[in-house]
Automatic annotation (TrEMBL):
Pathway involvement of the protein, from the record: tRNA modification; 5-methoxycarbonylmethyl-2-thiouridine-tRNA biosynthesis
A GO term for molecular function: tRNA binding
Every ELP1 alpha-solenoid domain range: 687-895
Pfam families xrefs: A-sol_ELP1, Beta-prop_ELP1_1st, Beta-prop_ELP1_2nd, HB_ELP1, TPR_ELP1
Region (Disordered): 1155-1181
Keyword annotations: Cytoplasm, Nucleus, tRNA processing
Domain annotation ELP1 TPR: ranges: 904-1063
Entry protein name: Elongator complex protein 1
Nucleus in keyword set: yes
Organism: Lepidopterella palustris CBS 459.81
Function field: Component of the elongator complex which is required for multiple tRNA modifications, including mcm5U (5-methoxycarbonylmethyl uridine), mcm5s2U (5-methoxycarbonylmethyl-2-thiouridine), and ncm5U (5-carbamoylmethyl uridine). The elongator complex catalyzes formation of carboxymethyluridine in the wobble base at position 34 in tRNAs.
Subcellular location: Cytoplasm; Nucleus
GO annotation, biological process: tRNA wobble base 5-methoxycarbonylmethyl-2-thiouridinylation
Major subcellular site: cytoplasm
Length: 1301
């Protein structure tokens, strides 16, 4: 769907030169052209000149490099001829191959001792053809002695081979006639006796009557093969394929009328040649094996065919996209798409007396730049692939495309008819071959540019079906001007860009029906590469080769020698090949794409891997080399945000087919058309355009269009509400009025859910950048969030119910849907609607029942209908289900016979609604049955609520509840219940079982237990508290209830409550107990505490160094750390971690990288028995095992917790020792405690703080490394993951100590 557009054209004539231009070559380093003039019959001289562009005079353009006499050494030639001219940019050297046999090099900057011109070799027999390989390392020469000769860059002979008539036997071609007319089925009686696989005519290779017997040579793009086209024995032409080593690979099959032209497509799949037939001239293709592979006709008229006596030439460009066909005085550029060849450009030359075929030289690095030359003129041209399309701004985005194909123009509006190329909806037949085409803003006019005139056609794009375009008028191009480009401004103004021979500047014209008006020359802007309109066709711009973008003033008509008036808009950092301009906030944003894939927005680089782009009124759309389609919201240049490569997360990014390029975008149809590399079209509907259209429709309150878009593009319909919640809730009536159809409203209601899709799957990316860009208030989502997301569906359904009540008869189905779609479904309300219809004997009742059964589970509906105690409704629902009438009919009949309250109880009991059933029993005044029902279903709380104003029944239920709690080990609540009933004895027992000694003893006192029982109870409770190490509580019982002061003091001392013990004995006037109880307690406590702290100190001093040693070993040699075999032959990518239960090959830890995976599947470690055994090994943390590190870390962590727990006890112990004059003991305990706390604080960094980077690395490995193993391997996995994670260090509680010590 792309056309070739001329973006650079330099025209030069050599009127004063006596020597003809005979060869050209590109200097890729300086982008200049090397031209060779001569020799000719009148002058045996060769002149080598360099062409410089952008200069004023011809003398400045052509810089002479060298000139020398070149007489022909062969008497058979009247004068010598240049067969090949090649320029080596790295050495500034030109190499000329002459037909007389000389090989000449010309050095532009010769070193000392080097000649400017040197004949480096000569072939005595003469040379027929020569060509350098694409890598410039090998020269292939065809001599006139029918020999192929290979030479190196230093012109040393490598190998040679002779042409032989027997070469034809190399390839035994078998043609089965695929695709030929003679092999097609024509009926059972047609040629029934002939083999259909044998063609009627087999080519014998008959020579063309205009064959000049010349030789052609062409290399494949990778330099691996070379093809030679020669005449064999004056009978036929043959193409020989030689390898780089000089071996004959294959020869071509015979083709009648095959001429000397030959060009191997650089991609390598085809060789192109010329076949001259009686009624046409074809370009034919061969495969490397010599077989034919298609052709296309050059579309010459009979007059042109009759006058075409000079052999043609072919040349592919370096990326295989364009084939140049050279005629006398003109050249054609052909492209291929979908196996159809398009004539995209025809370049004509002034008529010449010599009439030689045009010389074509493609640029070696810029695929669409070439030089075309005749003997007395030269054109350097550069093209770009563009799409001639209509506007991309609504409402004129019809997707109108125009594809040039010689003298025909293929026109297709893709929004109306998505017709794949090479077909089209309309085809215009033109008088001349088209050069360029432009489409107006409204897509109703098409302007076609040819070499001689401009034609305007009218298209009635709004009609259905669209009629053929109609010719309106034609205007002639001014004499002496060569047309290049054409563009529309609005719908009426047509602008033309032309060039002239021997002038660098271009001229801009305004075209009218009668004549063409000049707007001025572009002298002040330099060389012009592109004429184009803004995306809305309101302005026209010029793009210069120096990367400037100029806005053109088209209002003033001037003489053609006056300088053009314009305003500089932007300058790109580098030269771009294609530009589009969009207006945003009254500012022009120029988007430019370079040939290397850099996409600019004014001077800002947006992306460096772009392959194509287009601009709409709201988006910049582009494709990337990663095969992604991306959308950028138009805003100021600084705020343009390029989405990340996350097609699964961001609506602005989408994956596309490899190599796809943009053709056109149609925002109104929310579609984008892509063209695949082969040429076929694909229309997609990107989420970015679809959602933009939906949001725009919502903001305009066009809910019908938004709904239909959601429906056709499978977009979650919650966006209709979530994009603008407040607006939607205020316009529910408008939504219903626009949608109208009952099934469409049902579809919307059934898709509602509480998720806010505008913040999740359809997050509006433009809101984050421009909060005020959307006219609809966005605070509705926040207000809804404040109410809770769970209210969204119910709020919408309630609003619809309120609106639909007005037209209840028509929207009955929608009303039921709104009830059922609530969260949770309001089945009762929906069934009431059906029930009301049933009571009114409405004919819609059965249809309503069918609909509600379709929306919800029929079993739930049946239960809900029973719950309404409407047996007729339950019967109606049951009839819509798959239930067996023999089951539900007897049951419903039995319910029908019951009294109302008993019916309700039975129904609620069956439905499991126990609380309601209990209320019915209460209404029936059946207390005994109620009590049994409560005990059966544990409905004690509900029964207490029912009987809260009936004390007798309340106490009886409370007694049952207390017994229930006691039997189910809920002793605390049972005790409270018994105490509520004043049953203190039972309450005391319950409290004792709950270990609540205060409540148990107080209840026992209230129950007036005998003193012996009370003493026994207190003793039992005290003993239990001592066992649980609650010494303070146990001592309190001994003191308050047993009056045993001595025992109380001993228990206080066991808990290190020495101050409390001293207080109690002095309060009870027993000071002798200080010496008898407290002092021994202090001595015993200091001894046990000192021993404990010494153990902690020893543990730290032993475990921390061991842990350091393990981690050093792990860092130095991970394989040895995990008990791996020390075998250097094992590769690094094999997992190693053997244990006692696996062989050396059965592993899952990866060597050096700690990656995971299991390669031994024959072991039994995955059994549960081995897993338990491995867990026991992990818990033990045996020294030397892989679990030792984890065990040591956990052990030190538990030790710190233990030290923190005795902190206060040590503090109380030291204070008690000092009070009793035991300073040395106190000092010793305090010193040990300080030392232990210091050791704990000092080891925190070494034991617990793993580097955060390592943790993140491990996390990444776990995510990529696969699943966790099972069995014993899983235990090791867990251990190693735990050891590598950053364990939070425990807090070491500070020890205050005493200043007195």
């Amino acid at each position: 769907m792309r056309n070739l557009r001329n973006i650079g054209r330099s025209l030069l004539r050599f009127t004063d030169n006596n020597l003809p231009l005979t060869a050209t070559a590109w200097d890729a380093s300086s982008n200049s052209l090397i031209c060779a003039f001569g020799p000719c019959e009148s002058r045996a001289v060769i002149e080598l000149k360099r062409l410089k562009e952008h200069t004023d005079t011809q003398d400045e353009k052509l810089k002479k490099i060298a000139s020398w006499d070149a007489p022909c050494p062969l008497p058979s030639l009247s004068y010598d001829a240049i067969l090949d001219l090649h320029y080596f940019s790295d050495s500034l050297t030109s190499c000329l191959i002459l037909a007389g046999g000389d090989i000449i090099i010309v050095r532009e900057e010769p070193l000392s001792g080097e000649d400017l011109i040197e004949i480096v070799g000569s072939v005595d027999a003469g040379i027929s053809a020569a060509a350098w390989s694409p890598d410039e390392e090998l020269l292939a020469i065809i001599t006139q002695a029918n020999t192929i000769l290979y030479m190196t860059r230093e012109f040393e002979s490598v190998t040679s081979a002779n042409f032989s008539p027997d070469d034809i036997k190399v390839s035994n071609h078998v043609s089965v006639g695929w695709g030929k007319a003679e092999t097609q089925f024509k009926g059972k009686r047609a040629k029934a006796l002939r083999d259909p696989t044998m063609p009627e005519h087999v080519d014998e290779g008959v020579l063309s009557p205009f064959d000049d017997r010349s030789v052609a040579i062409s290399w494949r793009g990778d330099g691996a093969y070379v093809a030679v086209n020669t005449v064999e024995s004056e009978t036929r032409r043959i193409i020989r394929i030689y390898s780089r080593e000089g071996l004959l690979d294959s020869v071509s099959e015979p083709v009648d009328g095959l001429e000397s032209a030959l060009s191997w497509r650089p991609s390598g799949n085809l060789l192109a040649g010329i076949q001259r037939l009686n009624d046409r001239i074809d370009v034919v293709f061969f495969e490397r094996n010599g077989l034919r592979h298609g052709q296309f006709s050059l579309r010459l008229s009979s007059e042109e065919l009759e006058n075409m006596t000079t052999p043609l030439k072919l040349k592919w460009n370096n990326d295989s996209s364009v084939l140049a066909v050279c005629f006398p005085e003109k050249a054609q550029l052909w492209t291929m798409g979908n196996y159809h060849y398009y004539l995209k450009q025809e370049v004509e030359f002034p008529r010449s007396e010599r009439g030689h075929t045009v010389i074509n030289t493609w640029h070696p690095e810029r695929p669409l730049r070439l030089a075309l030359a005749t003997s007395d003129s030269l054109q350097t041209l550069e093209y770009v692939f563009t799409t001639a399309s209509g506007s991309t701004c609504s409402p004129n985005d019809f997707g109108l495309l125009s594809v040039i194909d010689g003298s025909s123009l293929k026109v297709t509006p893709l929004r109306v008819a998505n017709i794949p190329p090479p077909m089209s909806l309309h085809q215009l037949y033109l008088k001349h071959n088209a050069l360029d085409v432009a489409i107006s803003n409204s897509s109703t006019r098409i302007a076609v540019l040819s070499e001689t005139d401009i034609s305007l056609y009218s298209v009635e794009i709004s009609k259905k079906p669209i009629p053929d375009p109609v010719f309106v008028w034609r205007t002639t191009i001014p004499l002496g001007h060569c047309p290049r480009q054409i563009a529309f401004k609005g719908d009426a103004e047509i602008l033309l860009l032309t060039s002239q021979w021997d002038k660098e500047s271009s001229t801009l014209w305004k075209c009218g029906e009668e004549k063409v008006y000049c707007l001025g020359e572009t002298t002040g802007f330099g060389s012009i590469s592109n004429l184009f309109s803004s995306i809305n066709r309101e302005q026209v711009y010029l793009q210069t080769t120096s990367a400037f973008v100029v806005k053109v003033d088209t209002s003033v008509i001037v003489p053609d020698t006056t300088e053009l008036r314009g305003k500089l808009v932007n300058k790109f950092p580098s030269t771009v090949s294609w530009v589009q301009v969009a207006d945003y906030a009254e500012e022009a944003i120029c988007f430019g794409l370079t040939t290397s894939g850099v996409l600019y927005a004014n001077e800002r680089v947006l992306i460096r891997n772009c392959t194509s782009f287009l601009v709409t009124h709201a988006h910049l759309i582009f494709t990337t080399t990663q095969h992604l389609l991306k959308f950028v919201h138009l805003t100021t240049v600084e705020e343009l945000e390029i989405p990340l490569d996350e097609p699964e997360k961001d609506e602005r990014c989408r994956t596309i087919e490899r190599g796809a390029r943009l053709v056109i975008g149609m925002p109104t149809a929310y579609s984008v058309v892509l063209q695949m590399p082969r040429g076929n079209l694909e229309t997609i509907y990107p989420r970015a355009l679809v959602l933009a259209s939906i949001r725009r429709s919502i903001e305009m309150k066009d809910y019908k269009r938004a709904f239909l878009t959601c429906r056709s593009q499978r977009v979650d319909m919650n966006i209709l509400h979530d994009h603008a919640p407040e607006q939607f809730m205020a316009n529910v009536h408008l939504f219903v009025k626009q949608i109208k159809k009952v099934e469409h409203i049902d579809l919307f209601l059934s898709q509602l859910r509480d998720e806010d899709v505008s913040e999740t799957m359809y997050k509006d990316t433009i809101r984050d950048k421009v909060p005020n860009a959307i006219a609809v208030p966005t605070n509705g989502a926040n207000s809804e969030a404040s109410l809770g997301k769970n209210f969204k569906v119910n709020r919408i359904c309630d609003a619809f119910l309120k609106t639909l009540e007005v037209h209840k008869d028509y929207h009955l189905q929608n009303i039921i849907t709104a009830h059922v779609c609530k969260t949770p479904p309001d089945l009762d309300a929906g069934l009431r609607v059906v029930g009301n219809l049933q009571e009114a004997k409405d004919a819609q009742a059965e249809r309503a029942a069918e609909h509600i059964c379709f929306l919800a589970d029929v079993n739930q509906l049946y239960d809900s209908a029973l719950g309404l105690y409407n047996l007729e409704l339950a019967l109606l629902i049951a009839q819509q289900s798959q239930k067996d009438p023999r089951e539900y009919l007897p049951y419903l009949q039995s319910l029908q016979e019951l009294p109302p309250l008993r019916l309700k109880f039975k129904v609620d009991d069956q439905l499991g609604r126990r609380t309601k059933a209990l209320t019915h029993l209460h209404a029936l005044e059946a207390f005994d049955e109620l009590r049994g029902y409560v005990e059966k279903h544990s409905l004690y709380s509900d029964a207490l609520e029912i009987f809260k104003y009936e004390p007798l029944q309340l106490n009886e239920i409370m007694k049952l509840y207390a017994d229930y709690l006691s039997n189910h080990n809920q002793f605390k609540e049972a005790g409270i219940a018994y105490e509520y009933l004043s049953n203190h004895a039972s309450a005391s027992d319950a409290y004792r079982s709950a270990n609540l000694w205060r409540e148990s003893l107080s209840s026992a006192m209230l129950a007036n237990l005998p003193a012996a029982e009370l003493t026994s109870l207190a003793s039992t409770l005290a003993e239990g508290l001592v066992e649980t190490k609650d010494f303070f509580s146990a001592a309190t019982i001994h003191l308050d209830y047993l009056s045993d002061i001595e025992t109380a003091a001993r228990v206080f001392c066991k808990g290190y409550f020495f101050s409390e013990a001293i207080r109690v004995v002095t309060l009870q006037s027993r000071p002798e107990l200080i010496d008898d109880v407290v002092d021994p307690g202090l001595v015993e406590g200091s001894a046990s505490m000192t021993e404990l702290l010494a153990d902690c100190k020893g543990q730290i001093q032993a475990q921390v160094p061991r842990l350091q040693e393990l981690r050093v070993k792990k860092a130095e040699d991970p394989l040895a750390f995990f008990d791996g075999p020390d075998d250097p032959s094992i590769p690094d990518n094999i997992s190693l971690a053997p244990t006692d239960h696996s062989t050396s090959a059965g592993t899952f830890m990866t060597r050096y990288t700690n990656r995971t995976g299991t390669i031994n599947t024959t072991t039994t470690r995955k059994t549960s028995k081995n897993r338990r055994r491995e867990e026991r090994k992990r818990a033990r943390g045996k020294k030397g095992s892989v679990y030792e590190e984890e065990y040591l870390v956990n052990s030190i962590s538990r030790l710190i917790e233990r030290v923190n727990s005795v902190n206060e006890e040590v503090q109380r112990l030291c204070e008690g020792l000092m009070r009793r004059g035991m300073r040395e003991r106190a000092a010793a305990v305090q010193a040990v405690m300080r030392e232990v706390v210091g050791l704990c604080e000092g080891c925190l960094g070494e034991v617990f703080l793993v580097e955060k980077g390592a943790e993140m690395e491990v996390k990444g490995e776990v995510e990529d490394g696969g699943e966790r193993p099972v069995g014993a391997d899983g235990v090791l996995w867990d251990s190693l993951e735990q050891s590598r994670k950053m364990k939070e260090a425990p807090v070491v509680k500070a020890f205050e100590g005493m200043r007195l010590l």
